[in-house]
Amino acid sequence: MSDFVALRPAREDDLAMLERFLEDVEVAAPFEWFGWWDVGRWRRRWAEDGLLSEGRGLLVVERNGERLGFVGWSKVVTSQISYCWRFGIGLLPEARGHGYGTEAQRLLVRYLFAHTQVARIEAVTEMANVPEQRALEKAGLVREGVMRDYAFRNGRWRDAVLFSVLRKDVLIEDAPLPERPAGRH
């Protein structure tokens, strides 16, 4: 893993940081605030699977032991016998604009290709989220196109941009398999 930022499995004491993305408008704004909803989501998922399961996962982004946010992914079925991963990122406001998101997304792509057999990993971001588009491109993803009226946020439909990276386009170095957080099985 990188000395710049690191990814690690979530611990129970990370839940308060994750909940900030659901409860604090300033943390989720401007592109991830969808109103008040399901503020118990992280704690239920923690109790269910420790935020790592076969079809989805979440890793904490940190630098020198300081929590910066998280990356998460979920399975997208693409045919009867295949799937890809779709991922996203949430960084705390103080962690944005320093290149941490680019590095975290690059690490996540390498991790998912090293430990799963998918051929494709994708990300979607709102059209107006230009910093995230730049971060995805710097992380090695290719812009595929615009999806019109893709997501409803703050009273109107928003266009989104689809990015992807293919296994054949990434040099995969050995990536360690994170251990389960203590107390999980």
TrEMBL record:
InterPro entries: Acyl_CoA_acyltransferase, GNAT_dom, Ribosomal_N-acetyltransferase
Entry superkingdom: Bacteria
UniProt cross-references to Pfam families, sorted A to Z: Acetyltransf_3 (PF13302)
Positions of the N-acetyltransferase domain: 5-168
Name of the protein this chain belongs to: GNAT family protein
Organism of provenance: Actinomadura yumaensis
Lineage: Bacteria, Bacillati, Actinomycetota, Actinomycetes, Streptosporangiales
